[in-house]
Specification:
It catalyses: gamma-L-glutamyl-L-cysteine + glycine + ATP = glutathione + ADP + phosphate + H(+). The protein is α+β, with helices and mostly antiparallel strands and 546 residues long. It folds into 2 domains: 9-378 and 463-475 and 492-545, no CATH class; 381-459, Glutathione synthase lid domain (Dna Ligase, domain 1), CATH 3.30.1490.50. It contains 17 helices and 21 strands. The strands form 5 sheets. Strands 3, 5, 6, 17, 18, 19 and 20 form a 7-stranded antiparallel sheet that branches. Strands 7, 8, 9, 10, 11 and 12 form a 6-stranded mixed sheet that branches. It has a 4-stranded antiparallel sheet with strand order 13-16-14-15, with helices on both faces. Helix 4 runs parallel beside helix 10 and helix 15 (389-397) packs parallel to helix 16 (410-417). It binds adenosine-5'-diphosphate and magnesium ion (MG) (2 copies). Adenosine-5'-diphosphate binds at residues 140, 142, 155-156, 379, 423, 425, 428-431, 433-434, 458, 460-461, 498, 530-531.
Length: 546
């Protein structure tokens, strides 16, 4: 798709005075509207959440980033297909066992994945008392700049703890406010209200949680948010909590896994999950006990959430309960990088999109017509331990048999040969775990043979170059101090913008209830390979459609 927009013309030029005025408008808006983070803290606890005394604005982009309208709309349209695709993956026990399991799949090589899978297997063989699962998903994309023009390419599909929905809505509102309130923005003809799409992500995500709560169907039950003790992105979560109460009259209980080890229990015969809060935290004269309808995990996606094996016991207790899990363990496993790779293998997408949704008892919608659209969003991916025919053929074609160690599997040899255009990914979430381009050969030298299976190779998406942005941070971040930019509040940098589309799906019995519910943009300097806002490498952003 050809786009006439000149990306290298972005952002509009500003005088130092204009830049300062714009920064003042943006940061003041952010602080006034809950576009916030907790500041870094030295006194961290492993159990109790912090009581905040101050907040800082989230890292933000002064201008929205240009994104082609056609690709933006295509990504939103595709979300429903992706929603259904991942519900089917989560229902296909045999597929997940083969790809993610500890007997036959990645769980052999990756301890964290293996532990989650074993926990799930144990539970599903004994006592599944809740057939419904809830997913709050985020499908992430970059624009690929190839000779034919720009195309939408998927980075990953998140099924657990998909964050920044609420804050992204506030960044879009901030950009709309700046547009309406300042005259500098006449600097570009693209900066018009028509090109700023609506962002209603908070209500969309809360609607997903409320649908699960309603399906559970017990008056007075509450939704449990499972959170990390040292979470700084609490306001993003709190906006969902406020929306649930204000629009749906549903109360939320926030607890860490450590707190839940004490407060959570299952009613023996029914597996109803109850949380008992001491009178101090429930503001009642007696300890109070609440039934939980839905468990929303904003923790338990990374090994550091489980500092001792007892934390897994708590996670599995929650899984065994009658509450609807967002996500359930199989749905969390379905979001693995290895699943993303496995779906690209011949026939797999057709298996999941075909007329046989009924096979998993979740409706029979035939989505095969979308197979090409979905596949068009994928980059090449393969497993490092692969000896599949297509990998061998690709290797032969490159005459790369001599490159790499003779004893290595074709997947690893192909990764060595194509390292300059690849990223390697383990089964992890939350950013900071990947290995890029020139770092790959040495990494492969150091990787233990038995760990190979835990990694996938993925072709790098080559994004449009020369597009710039103004990135604003509230506090110095030590993670990228090398360019000296962290001393300044505003940095002008060449940037890459990643679009995320949110969706929810409630499924497991009868037809899937699903919807596309919003979007976010994260923008990072091109010098950084990673894009995690929480990890401090990138800023929250919105789009100007071009
Ligand atoms: P995580 O689950 O940790 O967020 P991702 O797969 O999203 O892992 O990778 C982290 C970041 O690395 C992405 O946000 C993106 O900036 C970059 N990245 C990942 N895959 C690619 C790719 N194929 N091409 C270019 N950049 C990528
Ligand atoms: Mg990501
Ligand atoms: Mg992820």
């Amino acid at each position: 798709m050809a786009v006439s927009f000149d990306f290298s013309s972005w952002p509009p030029q500003l005088t130092p005075e204009q830049l300062e005025a714009l920064t003042l408008a943006a940061t003041t808006y952010a602080l006034s509207h809950g576009l916030l983070y907790l500041p870094p803290s030295n006194s961290l606890s492993n159990t109790q959440p912090r009581i905040p005394t101050t907040a800082i604005h989230a890292p933000i982009s002064l201008f929205p980033s240009p994104f082609p309208r056609a690709q933006f709309e295509a990504a939103r349209k595709l979300q429903s297909v992706y929603n259904v695709l991942y519900t089917r993956v989560a229902m296909d026990t045999q597929f997940l066992d083969t790809v993610m399991g500890a007997d036959a799949g990645v769980g052999k090589a990756d301890e964290f994945t293996g532990t989650l899978w074993r926990g799930w297997k144990n539970i599903r063989e004994h006592d599944v008392v809740q057939p419904l699962h809830l997913g709050l998903f985020r499908s992430d994309y970059l624009l690929q700049d190839d000779r034919l023009g720009l195309s939408l390419k998927q980075v990953e599909f998140n099924t657990v703890s998909s964050s920044f929905g609420s804050l992204s809505e506030r960044v879009a509102a901030m950009h709309r406010h700046i547009l309406a309130s300042t005259s500098y923005l006449s600097a570009s003809p693209y900066l018009t209200a028509d090109n700023f799409p609506e962002n209603k992500t908070t209500s969309g995500l809360a609607e997903g949680l409320a649908k699960a709560h309603d399906a559970y169907g017990v008056q007075g039950a509450r939704i449990l948010f499972v959170v990390q003790p040292n979470e700084r992105n609490v306001f993003d979560q709190r906006w969902l909590e406020y929306e649930l109460l204000e629009k749906h009259e549903i109360l939320v209980i926030r607890q860490t896994l450590a707190e839940l080890a004490v407060s959570a229990s299952l009613v023996p015969s029914t597996h109803v999950l109850t949380i008992t809060l001491p009178s101090s935290s429930s503001l009642t004269s007696q300890p109070a006990t609440y039934e939980i309808s839905t468990i929303y995990f904003r923790a338990s996606y990374t090994p550091s959430d489980f500092p001792a094996s007892s934390y897994y016991d708590t996670r599995f207790l929650l899984e065994r309960s009658r509450a609807i899990k967002c996500p359930s363990l199989p749905l969390q496993l379905a979001g693995g990088k290895k699943v993303q790779e496995a779906l690209t293998r011949p026939g797999m997408l057709e298996h999941f999109l075909g007329n046989e949704g009924a096979r998993w008892g979740i409706g029979a919608r035939d989505l095969s017509a979308f197979a090409t659209n979905i596949r068009d969003t994928w980059m090449g991916m393969w497993a490092l331990d692969s000896d599949d025919a297509d990998i061998v053929t690709a290797l032969d074609r490159l005459q790369a048999v001599a490159s790499g160690r003779g004893s290595e599997p074709p997947g690893t040899r192909l990764a060595r040969h194509k390292a300059a255009s690849l990223v390697l990914k383990p089964q992890r979430e939350g950013g900071g775990n990947n290995v890029y381009r020139e770092a790959i050969p040495a990494f492969l030298d150091s990787l233990r043979v038995e760990e190979r299976e835990a990694w996938i190779a993925m072709e790098m998406i080559e994004t449009p170059r020369g597009v710039g942005g103004y990135l604003v941070r509230a506090a110095p971040s030590s993670s990228n101090a090398s360019d000296g930019s962290t001393e300044k509040k505003v940095v002008r940098a060449d940037v890459i913008s990643e679009l995320g589309i949110f969706g929810y799906a409630l499924f497991g019995a009868g037809d899937v209830v699903e919807k596309e519910v919003g979007w976010l943009v994260r923008t990072k300097g091109t010098e950084s390979n990673e894009g995690g806002v929480a990890a401090g490498f990138s800023v929250l952003d919105s789009v100007v459609l071009v």
